[in-house]
Design brief:
The protein is mostly helical. It contains six helices and four strands. The protein has one domain.
Length: 101
């Protein structure tokens, strides 16, 4: 949705504050991995990456192995959210938990 001179994610369940938070939310890969381990989702992520089409897989593997931080609205996070059938709220929660580690 285009609002106030910029594109804003349309999410009927997200508040304006949630959408704004997503724009700046980022965690280190250490935090992301620890959060996924705590949630029992680390293997799920690795399986999802392995099952992606070749071009997407190479990109996602490179991000997963070599990135030092991950942004909430990065294309890779959005790709993984879709591959895992996670909602925005579920991905937001993972980032919020990770940011406290």
């Amino acid at each position: 949705m285009y609002t106030g001179g910029e594109w804003v994610l349309e999410d009927s369940w997200a508040s304006f504050e949630d959408v704004q938070w997503r724009k700046t939310a980022e965690v280190t890969m250490r935090q992301a991995r620890l959060s996924l381990i705590a949630a029992g989702q680390l293997d799920t992520i690795e399986t999802a990456i392995a099952s992606l089409p070749a071009e997407q897989k190479v990109y996602a593997e490179t991000e997963w192995q070599f990135a030092t931080k991950i942004e909430r609205l990065s294309p890779t996070v959005e790709l993984m959210k879709s591959a895992l059938s996670w909602t925005d709220a579920e991905m937001d929660q993972m980032f919020k938990v990770a940011s406290g580690l």
